[in-house]
Amino acid sequence: MFQIDRSSTVAPYEQLRSQIIEAIAAGSLAVDTRLPTVRALADELGTAAGTVARTYRELEEAGVVTTRGRQGTFVSAHGDATEQAVQHAAAAFVAVARSLHVSDEVAIDLVTRALKSSAPPAR
């Protein structure tokens, strides 16, 4: 999901921080999504655990993620109240789809059909 460009002049922790923020903004990391452990992500990226720990610490200070002790690090609620409500609904939908062993493709198709069958929101 994330990758470090070793040839970049941008520090690895900053690359990772930016990628996590972009993933949240794009909706690929929803509210309450559990992030990989520091050690697991460091191993996956081939980087030092301290790099990932620094990234998580800075994201937590910014309110982007929250650490829940031994449970792990999770994406925090962010944005305005409307966005937060939709993110919570999306997270709940994903939890139900996962519990029913629905594939990602089918889940996305269901959401797409639901969006197409309802009237567009008034702005």
From TrEMBL:
SMART domains (alphabetical): HTH_GNTR
CDD domains reported for this sequence: WHTH_GntR (cd07377)
Pfam entry (one): GntR
Record GO terms (molecular function): DNA binding; DNA-binding transcription factor activity
InterPro entries referenced in this protein's UniProt entry, alphabetically: Tscrpt_reg_HTH_GntR, WH-like_DNA-bd_sf, WH_DNA-bd_sf
The organism's place on the tree of life at top rank: Bacteria
HTH gntR-type domain segment(s): 10-78
Keyword field: DNA-binding, Transcription, Transcription regulation
Protein name stated in the entry: GntR family transcriptional regulator
The species this protein was found in: Microbacterium mitrae
